């Protein structure tokens, strides 16, 4: 299947209301596993439903390859039943009056597939998803996880070139969710289907997607691979939305607090070429602790703090430190060598600094400056930071 | 990401419209919506408008009295109904009677029903499950069943025909006991007590015992808890029951007709009936308008109260608990009380009616006095029917009419209900769904008798392409259908809401067109709702009286009007037998509907 292209897509439900989706431009490549990620109400489900044709546009155009399927300007609207896509609903939307087999069979029947072929296809899909033993049951007799598989099987049976998934895992418990995630990844590999997946769960997006589109308030924030999104967030929203515990933001307006002044001082000293930084983001796992300033690599940004709390999470620990009133979270994977109330030095390599301007956009110029600096020195390498 | 210069502003208004039309007319939903809007506009809005016009336009035959030409605007009817010397008989007395009967009935049913609701939902009274169903039975029966039973027992020489039981036993009940305000009040109270039990009982069951416990822990005694916690929270349910009973009493025709007529005790509904019967169309329109207005105002108040009470519902947390009070030594007396109420409201009236149909001389319990002649006898030497009621051809023609007319209307309203539900939930045009939702609910605000008057006003004469429908079964079917729409459309809308869009959209994405989706997905899933949407209107239509009494003529007699006419001729046994049959159909029909839809009457309460 060719690419799906969204051009200047707008959607508002009410004339006076703010747009549910505004000026969205997105290209979904063939065979891609694209995640639409964002908090609830950001327009991601609306986008998915517009691709499916269940929601009309208020502006813009959707095309599959060269074929426009939805456009106000061209007066084109291909109804959902003719788009040949698959959609798995958050509620699964299994037909309660049909057995599992009939549910799976429905689309094939509509396409007038011969009986023998139909049976073969249904058997194959049910087998792949491990639901063949339930074929004569009704949806209400199945557990949530099983229903979810049926919903998937129903769509996979017709072998759609595009599979749209609307938060399909959100109604499952944690264990099942993990299982289904692996399953989805396997299906994606096996069937080669283009998948558009809507979720508000960043872990789901990170683990599944080949690329992620982060949305907020109806606008697209950033599109990229999971690593892109995490390591080079395009703006403060993306930086703060992705990552748990969330990224630490240090305001850069002068005179705000000790940590502000210290970080401003540090940037000015080491990176005089950078200007216009309004805030500084530090991911929790990139911050290290040292009991003495002498243990801190010379070119690291460091400041004295005290340990306010240590929260074990099983395999790792979240440590909360305070610089006066400013709270910072950091995570470590080994048992922490500090105790609550202790005075410590936190420090971080400039390689992990995210700088944002006054519009909350990433200062990409700063990235280049820092990368140059780090290429010259040794201590800013990730391994050096880890050593402490 | 793509950069291309097609800003949304460049797309013209015309293109936008074309796109919208393309989507809107792609599916029949919009066309069906439009059809329904026109249909219900004509069946509900137009008759009522026509009725209201009647009240300010000079009617046929009134040209001289109104001192204006036919069809001209006039205040004559308002003046006559509200301010003239006869206004006292036409409007003010009936209004006073309606109010006093309603409030009396409300007072009695609230106190009796309130106690019973509490006993049923919050205590360890014996046989609670059985009583929970048994005490609702009066509501399933036509209210004037009780009126007939009362008349059978207490009738005196004020009215001709067969004597009452007490009179035959040697005691003549006085008029005030036999007819008029007292019996009407008692009967309406008994009939609407189930209403209170259902509404109040539901509220009590939902009430979280932890709210009481919290007050207790803070040091409140039982009395403080009752007055400061329970009562305020129960108030909306109580008020709601009050208003609903009032609205129902307002349109109540049968009871007042059977028991009020002998002593000229008119309520608004019977006064309206008299005006129509004596062809005073204009005055009837004013009266019907007044009934409508009072009905609408009271139900608007109720809607407001329900909204208020919803505020409370959300307060309840997860761990809702319902604790029972041990009655201790009052356990037996409480059970006896419930038993007594059941006996008075179900056992006694039905027994009386049944016995009256198999006794030759009323009130004599000698074995030789019993006969089945009134049911299956032939060549009887009575002045009334010469054969038993089951052998009378009139009964069977009335029965056939009932099944035909009510059955057809119910099937129509059931289908319309689902269609309205579908359009309301799916329509791409918001205005259509709002209009349909409101217009189909409107007949609920209008007491049946006023609605019938509206139909009479519209369809009595030929108007445009529509011929005069008075005297045909069609007018009854149309009126019944419109009258049942509130229940049918409410059932349809809630069923479609519950279904949600997803199953249909899933079929759509899978490739199914509109018709296919209807046949393979929507209708099979909504089968239950469809059956309920047909059956419930059928039951309430079968025992309905007020619509028929105005719109039916002897050739379109249904069971209810047939029994009423038998009563007018004083063929008491026959009338009672027919009412028993109606009761049986209504009762078993309700049970069947409950079983089929696996619901309780408490949910579908209304008809």
UniProtKB/TrEMBL annotation, chain A:
It comes from the Bacteria. GO terms for molecular function: ATP binding. Keywords: ATP-binding, Nucleotide-binding, Transport. InterPro entries: AAA+_ATPase, ABC_transporter-like_ATP-bd, ABC_transporter-like_CS, ABC_transpr_MalK/UgpC-like, Mo/tungstate-bd_C_term_dom, NA-bd_OB-fold, P-loop_NTPase, Transp-assoc_OB_typ2. It holds the Pfam family ABC_tran. Gene3D superfamilies: 2.40.50.100, Nucleic acid-binding proteins (2.40.50.140), P-loop containing nucleotide triphosphate hydrolases (3.40.50.300). Residues 4-242 form the ABC transporter domain. Belongs to the ABC transporter superfamily. PANTHER family: MALTODEXTRIN IMPORT ATP-BINDING PROTEIN MSMX, OSMOPROTECTIVE COMPOUNDS UPTAKE ATP-BINDING PROTEIN GGTA. This is ABC transporter ATP-binding protein. The lineage of its organism: Bacteria, Pseudomonadati, Pseudomonadota, Alphaproteobacteria, Rhodobacterales.
TrEMBL record, chain B:
The chain crosses the membrane at residues 30-53, 99-119, 131-150, 176-204, 225-247, 282-301, 337-359, 405-425, 441-461, 467-488, 528-553, 573-593. It is a multi-pass membrane protein. It is found in: Cell inner membrane; Cell membrane. Residues 95-302, 399-593 form the ABC transmembrane type-1 domain. It holds the Pfam family BPD_transp_1. It comes from the Bacteria. Keywords: Cell inner membrane, Cell membrane, Membrane, Transmembrane, Transmembrane helix, Transport. The keyword Transport applies. Belongs to the binding-protein-dependent transport system permease family. PANTHER family: INNER MEMBRANE ABC TRANSPORTER PERMEASE PROTEIN YDCV (PTHR43357:SF4). This is ABC transporter permease.
């Amino acid at each position: 299947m060719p690419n799906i292209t969204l051009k200047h897509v707008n959607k508002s439900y009410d004339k006076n209301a703010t747009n549910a989706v505004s000026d969205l431009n997105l290209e979904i490549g063939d065979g891609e596993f694209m995640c639409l990620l964002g908090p609830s109400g950001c327009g991601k489900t609306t986008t998915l439903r517009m691709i499916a044709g269940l929601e009309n546009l208020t502006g813009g155009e959707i095309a599959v390859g060269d074929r426009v399927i939805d456009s106000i300007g061209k007066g084109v609207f291909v109804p959902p039943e003719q788009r040949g896509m698959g959609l798995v609903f958050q509620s699964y939307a299994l037909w309660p009056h049909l057995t599992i087999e009939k549910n799976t069979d429905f689309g094939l029947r509509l396409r007038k597939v011969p009986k023998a072929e139909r049976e073969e296809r249904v058997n194959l899909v049910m087998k792949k998803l491990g639901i063949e033993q339930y074929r004569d049951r009704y949806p209400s007799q199945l557990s949530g996880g099983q229903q979810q598989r049926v919903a998937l099987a129903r769509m996979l049976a017709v072998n759609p070139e595009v599979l749209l998934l609307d938060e399909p895992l959100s109604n499952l418990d944690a264990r099942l969710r993990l299982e289904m995630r692996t399953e989805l990844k396997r299906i994606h590999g096996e069937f080669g289907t283009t998948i558009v997946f809507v979720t508000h769960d960043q872990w789901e997006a990170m683990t599944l997607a080949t690329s992620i589109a982060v949305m907020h308030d109806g606008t697209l924030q950033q599109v990229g691979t999971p690593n892109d999104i995490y390591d080079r967030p395009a703006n403060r929203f993306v930086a703060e939305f992705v990552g748990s515990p969330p990224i630490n933001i240090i305001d850069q307006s002068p005179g705000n607090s000790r940590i502000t002044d210290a970080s401003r001082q540090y940037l000015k000293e080491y990176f005089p070429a950078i200007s216009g930084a309004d805030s500084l983001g530090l991911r929790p796992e990139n911050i290290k602790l040292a009991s003495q300033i002498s243990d801190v690599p010379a070119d690291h940004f460091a400041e004295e703090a005290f340990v306010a709390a240590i929260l074990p999470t099983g395999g790792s620990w979240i440590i909360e430190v305070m610089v006066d009133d400013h709270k910072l979270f950091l995570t470590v994977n080994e048992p922490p060598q500090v105790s609550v109330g202790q005075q410590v030095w936190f420090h971080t390599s400039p390689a992990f600094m995210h700088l944002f301007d006054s519009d909350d956009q990433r200062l990409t110029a700063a990235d280049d400056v820092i990368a140059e600096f780090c290429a010259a020195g040794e201590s800013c390498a990730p391994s050096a930071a880890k050593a402490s | 990401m793509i950069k291309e210069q097609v800003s949304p502003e460049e797309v013209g208004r015309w293109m936008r419209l074309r796109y919208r039309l393309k989507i809107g007319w792609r599916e029949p939903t919009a066309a069906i919506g439009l059809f329904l809007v026109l249909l219900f506009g004509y069946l509900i809005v137009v008759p009522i408008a026509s009725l209201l016009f009647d009240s300010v336009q000079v009617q046929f035959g009134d040209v001289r009295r109104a001192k204006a030409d036919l069809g001209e605007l006039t205040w004559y009817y308002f003046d006559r109904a509200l301010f003239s010397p006869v206004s006292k008989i036409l409007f003010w007395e009936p209004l006073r009677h309606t109010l006093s009967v309603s409030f009396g009935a409300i007072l009695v049913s609230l106190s009796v029903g309130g106690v019973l609701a509490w006993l049923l939902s919050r205590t360890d009274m014996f046989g609670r499950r059985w009583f929970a169903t048994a005490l609702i039975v009066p509501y399933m029966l036509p209210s004037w069943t009780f009126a007939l039973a009362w008349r059978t027992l207490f009738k005196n020489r004020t009215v001709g025909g067969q004597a009452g039981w007490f009179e035959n036993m040697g005691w003549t009940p006085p008029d005030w006991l036999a007819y008029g305000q007292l019996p009407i009040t008692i009967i309406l109270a008994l009939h609407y007590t189930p209403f209170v039990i259902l509404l109040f009982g539901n509220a009590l069951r939902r009430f979280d015992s932890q709210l009481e416990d919290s007050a207790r822990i803070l040091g409140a005694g039982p009395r403080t808890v009752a007055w400061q916690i329970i009562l305020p929270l129960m108030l909306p349910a109580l008020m709601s029951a009050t208003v609903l009973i009032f609205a129902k009493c307002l349109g109540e025709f049968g009871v007042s007709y059977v028991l009020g007529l002998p002593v000229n005790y008119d309520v608004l509904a019977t006064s309206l009936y008299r005006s129509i019967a004596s062809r005073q169309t204009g005055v009837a329109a004013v009266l019907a308008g007044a009934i409508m207005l009072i009905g609408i105002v009271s139900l608007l108040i109720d809607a407001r109260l329900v909204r208020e009470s919803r505020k409370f519902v959300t307060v309840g947390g997860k761990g809702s608990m319902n604790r029972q009070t041990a009655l201790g030594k009052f356990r037996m007396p409480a059970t006896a009380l419930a038993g007594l109420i059941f006996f008075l409201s179900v056992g006694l009236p039905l027994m009386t009616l049944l016995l009256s149909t198999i006794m030759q001389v009323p009130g004599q319990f000698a074995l030789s006095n019993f006969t089945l002649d009134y049911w299956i006898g032939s060549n009887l030497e009575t002045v009334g029917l010469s054969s038993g009621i089951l052998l009378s051809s009139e009964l069977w023609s009335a029965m056939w009419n009932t099944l035909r007319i009510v059955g057809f209307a119910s099937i129509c309203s059931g289908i319309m209900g689902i269609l309205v539900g579908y359009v309301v939930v799916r329509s791409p045009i918001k205005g259509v769904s709002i209009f349909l939702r409101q217009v189909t609910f409107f007949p609920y605000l209008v007491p049946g008798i006023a609605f019938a008057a509206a139909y009479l006003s519209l369809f009595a004469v030929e108007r445009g392409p529509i011929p005069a429908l008075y005297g045909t079964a069609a007018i009854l079917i149309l009126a019944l259908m419109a009258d049942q729409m509130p229940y049918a459309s409410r059932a349809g809308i809630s069923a479609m809401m519950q279904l949600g869009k997803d199953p249909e959209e899933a079929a759509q994405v899978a490739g199914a067109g509109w018709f296919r989706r209807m046949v393979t997905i929507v209708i099979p899933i909504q089968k239950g709702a469809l059956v309920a949407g047909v059956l419930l209107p059928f039951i309430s239509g079968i025992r309905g009286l007020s619509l028929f009494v105005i719109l039916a003529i002897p050739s379109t007699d249904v069971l209810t009007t047939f029994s009423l006419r038998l009563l007018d001729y004083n063929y008491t046994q026959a009338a009672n037998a027919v009412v028993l049959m109606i009761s049986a159909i209504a009762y078993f029909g309700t049970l069947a509907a409950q079983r089929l839809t696996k619901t309780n009457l408490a949910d579908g309460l209304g008809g």
